[in-house]
Amino acid sequence: MSRQLSTTDQWIGQFDSVLRTLVPHAAQAARPSPAGELPEASLSEAEREHTVGLMRINHTGEVCAQALYQGQGLTAKLPDTREQMERAAQEEIDHLAWCDARLQELEGRTSLLNPLFYAASFGLGAMAGAVGDRVSLGFVAATEEQVGRHLDEHLLELTAADRRSRAILEQMREDEAHHERWALEAGGARFPLPVKLGMRLVSKVMTQSVYRI
């Protein structure tokens, strides 16, 4: 019989999640990297720098995803919804660790803006969860739709020779599409176009700033 976690236990777990999300190289993937034993590509300096920028954007996107799921899980009303949020968050940890490892391979770094984006995303997630599970799930679906759009764009921008980065982004794309479908099938609200356009604008600000910082 599992022990009911106290409020203190929950906050300790939350703090541990924050550290694993924000401290470089702290996240541990449950699944092996899709890059596996694929050979490293011979990239020009310009190609390497561009790929680092793209992977840094994807890493920060996973930081935001962690924060959103953690915030929503904290305020979600239904136990089933909370459990699904936690399960999806674990897959996002895999993405976080894979992007971090790829940045190390490319001699890049994670974004200095991650703590700022984490705090903002956690707040949005907590507010969405507090409003209700239908809105919270809808927010997941709309967010994953935006993430999928970015991943599609990045897959087009990557040099064809970089099979390691491509394998990671393709698996991430598959997982994000699954999260989007789950959120809608679980009863998530379909956000109207103006809301999605607003989210797209915020996402654009994030990507442009994180690419270099």
Automatic annotation (TrEMBL):
Fe cation 2 binds at residues 92, 144, 176, 179. Its cofactor is Fe cation. It is found in: Cell membrane. It is a peripheral membrane protein. GO terms for cellular component: plasma membrane. Signal peptide: none annotated. The keyword Cell inner membrane does not apply. Binds 2 iron ions per subunit. The keyword Oxidoreductase applies. Its EC number is 1.14.99.60. Catalyzes the hydroxylation of 2-nonaprenyl-3-methyl-6-methoxy-1,4-benzoquinol during ubiquinone biosynthesis. This is 3-demethoxyubiquinol 3-hydroxylase. It comes from Halomonas salipaludis. The gene is coq7.
